[in-house]
Specification:
alpha/beta
Length: 267
């Protein structure tokens, strides 16, 4: 059993929902990213997504776009992020996932990337611009090494395709809560609960909702019907405004503790 599956089983037994914060790897540097990740895990995060910076992050709003630009300007690469995961893995057994775009992964080759990711302890990979039909070689290479290839669905996903995605995803299904790019929103989009219910009618796979979740109240609302939430832009923005490395880690820990408290008692 992989770390992601084991994590969801533990949370289900406790009646909790998963909190999965997202940070852009290397914004402003990898040492800060590592300190922030460990602080979030200590504060209650169940798993962490580390974003691989890319020059054309088509699913991202301005907050994460700018974070990617800062990381790339600092010389962050996929190989450097993998080395960072290796350092993190020595200090935690929590699930660590990479979220990025297809180009950097394929630049290493599907087999080469999968092997390198397995060696450092990556648990899951999310590729927003790589549907399963086009990424079969990468997803199969990851699966052979025990790494979950997490697929995404959206409110516009047709029922027959939703069934396919729910069957093929590994670890959990990432349900994009809105038709648009990432970014904190004051209000949740309509229809999220119905979308998650549609997944549940087709598969027992855990469903995590992301895009647009920014507050503990929103997290609690989604936690009523989903297995977990992903919080990205609100956290990335908070970190950028926080100051130095220690201040960023402290701010991340406070935010995560607030979000996780809401998911321990979903409304």
């Amino acid at each position: 059993m992989g770390r992601i599956e084991a994590c969801f089983r533990r949370l289900r037994d406790r009646g909790e929902r998963a909190l999965m914060p997202f940070v852009t790897g290397g914004d402003p540097d990898l040492e800060t990213t590592e300190e922030v990740v460990l602080a979030m895990l200590q504060a209650g995060a169940d798993a962490v997504e580390i974003g691989v910076p890319f020059s054309d992050p088509i699913a991202e709003g301005p907050t994460i776009q700018r974070a990617s630009e800062r990381a790339l300007a600092g010389g962050v690469t996929l190989r450097r992020i993998l080395a960072s995961v290796k350092r993190l893995r020595s200090g935690t057994e929590a699930p660590l996932l990479l979220m990025g775009y297809a180009n950097p992964f394929y630049a290493m080759g599907a087999e080469g990337f999968a092997e390198a990711a397995a060696e450092v302890g990556v648990d899951g990979v999310i590729v927003p611009d790589l549907p399963p039909e086009e990424g079969a070689d990468l997803y199969e290479a990851l699966a052979r090494r025990g790494i979950d290839g997490v697929l995404l669905a959206a409110p516009t996903t047709r029922p027959e395709r939703l069934a396919m995605l729910a069957e093929r995803t590994r670890g959990f299904l990432y349900y994009v809560s809105l038709t648009g790019v990432t970014g904190a929103r004051r209000e949740l989009a309509e229809g999220i609960e119905a979308g998650v219910k549609a997944v549940r009618e087709r598969s027992p796979v855990p469903v995590c909702v992301g895009f647009g979740i920014a507050t503990a109240e929103q997290a609690a609302e989604v936690g009523r019907f989903a297995d977990g939430v992903v919080v990205g832009s609100a956290l990335v923005s908070l970190l950028h405004e926080a100051g130095d490395r220690d201040a960023r880690a402290a701010a991340a820990a406070r935010f995560v503790a607030e979000l996780k408290a809401a998911l321990r008692r979903p409304a």
